[in-house]
Amino acid sequence: LRSFEPYLLANNKTEKPVLHVSLNPDPKDVLSDEQLSDMAQEYMQQMGYGDQPFIVYKHEDIERKHLHIVSLRVDENGKKIDHNFEHRRSMDACRELEQKYGLAPADKKQRQEGLPLKAVRYEEGDIKHQIANVIRSIARDYHFQSLKEYGALLTIYNIGMEEVRGEAKGKPYQGLIYSALNDKGEKVGNPFKSSLFGKPVGIPALEKRIEKSAEIIKDKGLKERSKKVIASAMRSCGNRLDFEKALEKQGMGVLFRTNEQGRIYGATFIDHEQKCVFNGSRLGKEFSANVFNDFFNGSGQKQEQPDHKAGQAFETFENVSRESPSKYCMQGKK
């Protein structure tokens, strides 16, 4: 992970410097770790990221083995790498890998899942497609225990989510609306009903995901790792920027909600390693928004933190920590 640091330091202006790709072979494909590693390196080479530091790790948390690749969109000189036509280049690269390794051709859904997960850019057009790629991946891969936690995670990718309720023809209705956001967290363009993206990102499916997430988080004790990382960062860091950087190095991000006076009134933590989202107060009162407001904006004195062993739809989030990679089993070449 340290190989990433010089690149990030060379360019601190790029809002979304991290590239995250998922490669999903068919369950029928039998591939060794060496083959998977070679495939990842060839994919990155064809995508124009072959000279970048990147990390590859294998997951088996769904019905098939799949790879996650994390790299950087800025080179060692701080220049942003061209990402034009990334969708098309990714599709072409995957087709070449299928032919070379004799893999089963991916269907349309699998191809969609393999695209790089990146923030929505309104100026690039095809907003519906951009939003669909993100929300389907997040709803499938991350654990969250409320719609607000789900919505907070979406803001990292410049997507706003709003819950709507009302009555039509004498019958109550409830639904979600997704919108593109600019880098200031402001809505741009027209919103989209969740039904346009399919059932997995509508309220009924998300409520089931929330219920299942709560069970998984409890059964696997996933809170403890996040609490330990946050507490450690609070003990070692005296200001907000250093705190966020410390979390990044451990594969975590934080979203602080602030009012016009700069008071922190909300904190949401995203553990990318465990793919979990936690409102601060859900982790414990020692991680609530008030604690962080006093910690960073109050007397400036650090508070003793325990040594753990183990909204609104369109709120503006400040100082969004850059997405950090997780724990990996294979490392790519520089």
UniProtKB/TrEMBL annotation:
Q: Which Pfam families match?
A: Relaxase
InterPro entries with a match to the protein in the record:
Endonuclease_MobA/VirD2
Q: Which residues form the MobA/VirD2-like nuclease domain?
A: 9-103
**UniProt xrefs under NCBIfam families:** Bacteroid_MobB
Q: What is this protein called?
A: MobA/VirD2-like nuclease domain-containing protein
Q: Which organism is it from?
A: termite gut metagenome
